[in-house]
């Protein structure tokens, strides 16, 4: 049986939702953008632009960010789940 999903969010809405979720998790762990960037081995300006919803993040970087935030990548991606 096929499940019916709602229409996925637009690219821009997905990026903004992902960035907001990432920022919320970062702030909950009291990490600065610089601290998260260092833990994820990414540049601070990259972290900042992801949080502002300006970047279409690769799977590799989603994984790096999630592990730096000490969550599973799936937890970080819940914000763009079409059934939520």
Oligomer: single chain
Sheet bearing the most strands, described?
none
Tally of helical runs: 5
CATH topology type: 434 Repressor (Amino-terminal Domain)
**Radius of gyration, rounded?**
13 Å
For the record, what CATH class applies? Mainly Alpha
Detailed description of the structure:
By secondary structure, the chain is mainly α. It has a single domain (11-80), classed as lambda repressor-like DNA-binding domains (434 Repressor (Amino-terminal Domain), Orthogonal Bundle). Helix content is 58%, strand content 0%. The protein has five helices and no strands. It has helices at residues 11-28, 33-40, 44-51, 59-68, 73-77. Helix 2 (33-40) crosses helix 3 and helix 2 packs across helix 4. The chain starts with 10 loop residues before the first helix and ends in a 7-residue tail after the last helix. The mean pLDDT is 90.
């Amino acid at each position: 049986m096929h499940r019916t999903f709602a229409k996925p969010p637009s690219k821009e809405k997905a990026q903004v939702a992902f960035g907001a979720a990432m920022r919320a998790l970062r702030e909950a762990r009291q990490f600065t953008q610089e601290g998260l960037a260092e833990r994820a081995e990414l540049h601070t300006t990259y972290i900042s632009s992801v949080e502002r919803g300006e970047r279409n993040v690769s799977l590799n970087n989603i994984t790096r960010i999630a592990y730096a935030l000490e969550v599973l990548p799936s937890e970080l991606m819940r914000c763009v789940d079409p059934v939520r």
